[in-house]
Amino acid sequence: xxxxxxxxxxxxxxxxxxxxxxxxxxxxxxxxxxxxxxxxxxxxxxxxxxxxxxxxxxxxxxxxxxxxxxxxxxxxxxxxxxxxxxxxxxxxxxxxxxxxxxxxxxxxxxxxxxxxxxxxxxxxxxxxxxxxxxxxxxxxxxxxxxxxxxxxxxxxxxxxxxxxxxxxxxxxxxxxxxxxxxxxxxxxxxxxxxxxxxxxxxxxxxxxxxxxxxxxxxxxxxxxxxxxxxxxxxxxxxxxxxxxxxxxxxxxxxxxxxxxxxxxxxxxxxxxxxxxxxxxxxxxxxxxxxxxxxxxxxxxxxxxxxxxxxxxxxxxxxxxxxxxxxxxxxxxxxxxxxxxxxxxxxxxxxxxxxxxxxxxxxxxxxxxxxxxxxxxxxxxxxxxxxxxxxxxxxxxxxxxxxxxxxxxxxxxxxxxxxxxxxxxxxxxxxxxxxxxxxxxxxxxxxxxxxxxxxxxxxxxxxxxxxxxxxxxxxxxxxxxxxxxxxxxxxxxxxxxxxxxxxxxxxxx
Length: 508
Prior knowledge:
By secondary structure, the protein is of the alpha/beta class. The chain has three domains: 1-25 and 53-68, no CATH class; 90-359, Type I PLP-dependent aspartate aminotransferase-like (Major domain) (Aspartate Aminotransferase, domain 2, 3-Layer(aba) Sandwich); 361-495, Aspartate Aminotransferase, domain 1, CATH 3.90.1150.10. 33% of the residues lie in helices and 11% in strands. It has 15 helices and 13 strands. Strands 1-7-6-5-4-2-3 form a seven-stranded mixed beta sheet, sandwiched between helices. The longest helix is centred in the C-terminal third of the chain and has 25 residues, at 361-385. The model has no long low-confidence stretch (mean pLDDT 92).
């Protein structure tokens, strides 16, 4: 691996040969060095192993890296279940206003009234959208939100003396984080099969729902892009045995302003602000995964939450629109799940999005559903015209999908030896991020596609055309794809299990 010199060379910060000890600087101490007494245990024995390079070399390195990235700003990103959509730049501007970006959570309340007002408004907005009674902004990821909500339910049952409730029910189409989050809380996971049409099997649910049931975890629409038409009956079954209903908010962008988890009978819900409300994905985090609950679970929420009251005379000068905002802890809180007050930057970005587009949130969901159904039919049309429509089928039969849909490349695998992964890699060569592959597991050779509401008809038409073109490529070529990308096909299992996270030094 050589250092970056132009052309196609690999850029490696540690292979530049700058002067020893240069490339960084420390500020001079505020006190004379003679007066400083640093304990030996805290004193550095060797210079830090920082790269020895100049500023231009460093800039070139990171610019080189940026050219190898693929994101929503560089091309169409139809990653199912992840909602990779445009993030308005005005949100970034607002989040970086000094009065927001430069404050510290330990500052006194009268310094934080603007931020607290935003937090309070976001709590209320999410309550309205979800049909819940109380929201906390603490969790910084969807999975952490799942864990937090299940913990609240767990404490609810402990307070009631119902220790026998040790079971969490999940459908076989559930996001993998659902059973994982429940298992982290110590629950037994009971999986129920879906019907042949991909929806909840109510008979299977009735067979396992009993006095040991704590929670059923489900998203609606489900991971097949199908609306669970029997969700009210499912909620009734779980509630009849004393259990709670939990809504996985990963697919919330399909129902926003149209219906709500509260209307479906759910007791708790998590939101993915980095999906539905435009906070950019964090590349592993942090994102933002607030949770909302019905009133009977509110006392268990992690704090702090924001409350609104009338200001006292001494507070009038700093009050916001005649109101004062304060932190408070719920009575039987499970405790913090995140330092400070959650991911403030994400909350601000989503607040800006809601403030700008709040009146059009229902339209956003309608367009997400419209785009998904349009692309689904466009792919079928394009593959039929190309004579390759025999290579794929719908992952689930549906007159109308919601925000996403699934395709099965099972026929292509059986007749041509072309897998869903091969097609995904072939799409990379066409300049696209591939759809999600092999999830949900109930669909053989699955591809899950989510175009989101922000893509144009031209983009969707072009993708459908290129999708059909990939299916016309011979199997041997697709097995080697991608061919044109900076990184060729890798052994993904090996890469996941053998992470390289630090520079390998020769003397180690």
